[in-house]
Amino acid sequence: MTEREKLLKRLSAVSFAAHELHIYLDTHPNDNAAGAALKKYETQSMKLRNEYESSFGPLSVGEDGNRWAWIADPWPWNNEEG
User: Fold this and answer.
1) For residue 5, what are the domain limits?
2) How many percent of the chain have pLDDT more than 70?
């Protein structure tokens, strides 16, 4: 697995955890521990996203001002694991 793939998997896991905590807090708004965990995951997600984008380019179309930058990335089916 390349460093790019490892970083993207870490970012995906942290973002998933933050998203799930958002859903949980919809029904448990007074859970302070979950709120603190959400802040931790959001901070970590932002850090990982910045790290990824500084090394490999934008994760979303047009974020860097270049609408077509994403097309230069390898497609999911063009990975090294084949």
Assistant:
1) 1-28
2) 78
- Domains identified in the chain, total number: 1
Q: Measured in whole angstroms, how far is the alpha carbon of residue 77 from the centre of its chain?
A: 20
pLDDT tens digits for range 60-71: 765 556 666 667
- 62 domain-assigned: no
Task: Please give the helix or strand (H or E) that residue 13 lies within, else none.
Answer: helix 3-27
Alpha-carbon distance of 55 to 69, in angstroms, equals 13
pLDDT at 52 exceeding the cut of 80: yes
CA 23 to chain centre: 17
pLDDT at position 11, please? Answer: 96
Find how far residue 15's CA is from the centre of its chain.
5
